[in-house]
Amino acid sequence: xxxxxxxxxxxxxxxxxxxxxxxxxxxxxxxxxxxxxxxxxxxxxxxxxxxxxxxxxxxxxxxxxxxxxxxxxxxxxxxxxxxxxxxxxxxxxxxxxxxxxxxxxxxxxxxxxxxxxxxxxxxxxxxxxxxxxxxxxxxxxxxxxxxxxxxxxxxxxxxxxxxxxxxxxxxxxxxxxxxxxxxxxxxxxxxxxxxxxxxxxxxxxxxxxxxxxxxxxxxxxxxxxxxxxxxxxxxxxxxxxxxxxxxxxxxxxxxxxxxxxxxxxxxxxxxxxxxxxxxxxxxxxxxxxxxxxxxxxxxxxxxxxxxxxxxxxxxxxxxxxxxxxxxxxxxxxxxxxxxxxxxxxxxxxxx
Length: 351
Fold this sequence. Notes:
alpha+beta, two-stranded antiparallel ribbon, 9 helices, 13% strand
């Protein structure tokens, strides 16, 4: 059962509470009237209260027919013409009933004249129309709330499924890149390839055990990025790529963030920002801002800009979708391409 069902049950309870409060007010109103009369010297009259309650009966019947039959079966099912026709018939019966009642109470005073209708009948019809309008408005308002919450619940479910798929794609993509790096190193430096394999096993352990969780510790994510960069450094000749990594040396142990939220930017920096023909530079920085947020910066020389922008494969578009789901508008992501440099700046709140 998805969350929308609980939303429907909750809003229906609220709707019933609104009706209960209104009818309770209508039932106790004559008591206030009697207390006001007593303040002016009159005696408390149960007959007046009984007359008031008896007069409420036709209003309650019309309310019940409109609330439980006409609106659900016709108006909410896009049969507005039938709803209006039956509603007019219901109002006509109410007027007929009120007219007969008036004739019974006041013989000889006809209510069927087109002019000079008695004020009690006019007031009762006006109150009835107001009751129907309020009843229908309340139903439509709660229907709108239910539909809105249901759409939001379904959208949340869809986004959660989408995030699961994205994670399922990110992990194999990550391993594929790392295995390709090790494969390329085997022929050039077997000893270094063995060390890289050991480093990869640490990364795999983190991805498998932490990557599927909703949150991970900032300490673990920092260690993961540090191990990844260390592993990538082994791939390049000394002095070929200028790699600067600035990570917190004493991160808060209780700070939690989404796992592997930064790795796509780091991967792209190494994948698309390194040239074997020219000097390359990668700068990665992460820090706690002191206001419960994490600031991440990744900058690299730009050799394959179109690929880094996420055209195909697991790219920046997927990261944005994940950030939108996790934080909605409560994050800042800036991406710039200028002077041969690709710059990413991301600030997220701690979870």
